[in-house]
Amino acid sequence: QVEHLVNDLDLLFKKLFSTEDVKVTGDFARQEETLDVLEFVIVSDAEMIIKTLTRFEEFTLLEHAQGYILYQYNNGIKIKLYPAEKNDFVKRVFETTGSIQFVAAFKNDYAETAFQHARNEEEIFTNAALQHIPGYLRNDPEILKVAAENKIPKLIQPNDIKGIIHCHSNWSDGINTLEELATACIKNGKEYLV
User: What pLDDT does residue 157 have?
Assistant: First the structure.
């Protein structure tokens, strides 16, 4: 339900701060089922972020703490922004994507050198001699042991889905005909429609 908002905010922050170095992080990056806050890492300093967002009435500043800025967005969801320097952007994204327990275990078990010269999160894992751990698996520190043995299985991806089950046509409360639904499935490489 918040995916469109995440995409809109991502585009807004990239435009406002003239940088491609904006990344969604936190619970959304871990694909948690419920979210209380949307989190982003932005290459900018805190003062510039606050000054820039002051002119937008949909952002209400709630807290400016060490390492983050918290806003209420449109009297709805909270937005937590982590300012970062260009040279620590990837590390900051890594630290804010995993759960507190996951990040603490990683930092305890793997040298700080894992972050050096890393241009993306995949390189952090490569530097630590670990299989890449996607954001959505970074809740439990036990996954580090699985990654150390290179045993994270290939997980189901959207292109693995072969058909669509439970689809409504205009025979009930849907808006498309059966033929339109079938044509769309064929166009998207699906094998069946129920």
Answer: 84
Tell me if 101 sits within 8 A of 95, measured CB to CB.
Answer: no
Name the burial class of residue 109, with classes exposed (0-12), middle (13-18) and buried (19+) by CB atoms within 10 angstroms of its CB. middle
What integer pLDDT is reported at residue 137 of this predicted model?
96
Query: Can you list the residues of the chain whose pLDDT is less than 70?
Result: none
pLDDT digits (tens, 9 = 90+) for 42-97: 999 999 999 999 999 999 999 999 999 999 999 789 999 999 999 999 999 999 99
Tokens 């409360």 correspond to what residue?
Answer: 173
Q: Are 91 and 21 in contact (CB under 8 A)?
A: no
CB contact set of 185 (below 8 Å; sequence gap of 6+): 163, 164, 192, 193
Phi, psi of 2 (to 5 degrees): -100, 0
Q: Which of 168, 185, 188 lies closest to 176, judged by CA?
A: 168
